[in-house]
Task: structure prediction
Amino acid sequence: MAIVIQEPVDTAGAPRPVVARPKPGAARRSWVGWAFVAPFLVVFLFAIVAPIGYATYLSLYREQLVGGRKFVGVDNLVDAFKDSQLRSSFGRVALILVIQVPVMIVLAAAIALAIDSGRLAGARLFRISVFLPYAVPSVIASLMWGFMYGDQFGLVKSINSDLGWHLPSPLSDTWALPAIGNIITWEYVGYNMLIFYSALRVIPTELFEAAALDGASQWRIARSIKLPALRPAIAIATIFSIIGTFQLFNEPNILKTLAPNVISTFYTPNMYAFNLSFAGQQYNYSAAIALVVGVVTAVCAYVFQRSAARSEA
Amino acid sequence: MAARPGAAAVPRRSWFLTGVMGLMLVYAYLPLLWLIISSTKTQRSLISSFGLWFHGKFALWDNVRDTMTYDDHSFVRWFGNTLLYVVAGAGGATVLATLAGYGLAKFAFPGRRAVFSLVLGGIAVPATALAVPTFLMFSKLHLTNTPWGVIIPSMVSPFGMYLMWIFSRDAVPDSLLEAARIDGANEFQTFRIVSLRLLTPGIVTVALFTVVATWNNYFLPLIMLNDPNWYPLTVGLHQWNNQANTISAKPVFNLVVTGSLLTIIPITACFLSLQRYWRSGLAAGSVKQ
Result:
């Protein structure tokens, strides 16, 4: 799983010696480094490694009315793979993954290119404004959009009754998923834009000078210099989005209050694991689901990273 | 930001592009505008009037007062809890990440490579996938329903540590450390006197992002805490919002809206005022290396 972050280190062609071969003299071989690393490592082991181990252990057992706790091996995992509710929840995040994530990434890249082009009046204002929603807690983002979505008393209702339009309710069966996708896009497009913008700012200026001498147009420069320079950043942003999408919880869980009949308790894998634990008391099965979600996420991130690295080569 | 020197000699302003981007601006501000306008309305006109314009009595100050005092000052207590989680959780995460990133970048010690791979693996482990297992383990240890249930998991930021590793590698020259050693400083003095200052932009970046993550966290406290006295703002506001659905339905949407506005203001101010630092941090950390 280490791949995720090592990738940019490799492709950027940066010297990667610190781990591979310590510089002589500067980093002397001694135990003092442990004093710096140990506090982090202790909390890391306790709050990340141990829960994974405990979840694995739990997933191997089952609580039964008769006979109490019983070792069942991989039965819970087998059940998870056959579980149609889990499958439907994965289906919904998969839709977000193939539609919302690309839309958001392309939008973020387009905005970054526009701001970087120097052709905008007030570029600074645009940069800050588009980024601002990132600072808004996802709970509050979902509350605000949820209020606006409301066709009972929200903005949609006002538009329909005042203008005589017939906008469909964003919280209906068909539109709930796009409505959630919109909230995620609103929250994160600016964050991704900023990552891309930072990548554009470090392109060596000689490249632009050479292109200008060759008489290249702005479009040509964007396509031949800027887009290739964005590739590593796009790869990282996409991997983080993949990880984030599988974890989807806050937005649907908040909107559930407004649309309890549309957004089920197993709307996303994470909501399913949560509700199994807290409403159903099925801790063992919930632990198995959490493991499945983690593994599927890691596999998807890995597959994407490999294919990104291959097309780079 | 004007165009940089070489970028195709002073491009002309494009009003078309500016116009298209203007739509993005509308998109970004629309919910915030709705929030600000709505926080000036009473519960009744909030529900009955058009969302993007003022209506009826200007009730902002009443709303703010009611938000603060409602339900025995819950909001103020939640605000205090959020601060506690941010200071202990995000503060702890920043300190631990800085020490560890620096340690990994600047010292060769037995087992370093193993530590490094372990932590990089930790970045790929999604925080929320861990929340349910962490809850199950913490409840065995009787850490749930205490502040520790929120603080301890907030104290690890593998990504923050990774950023600090890059920062330490690039911003602290080995020759400087060597000079300090020759002068007889021990490693901790060197860190405190020489390195810390050079690491400041990186530390601010990590601090800011862990602060945002903790301030905005919802899933973890939702799972860990039962007692409303320990809720942070996010969980508390959601509970107020849910109140409309309970049997004795008592909607307080105007307080939810005003409370949301009051929650956003400090974190946004924090971001805007520290812009200079985190932008350089972001540039160095997530892209350049």
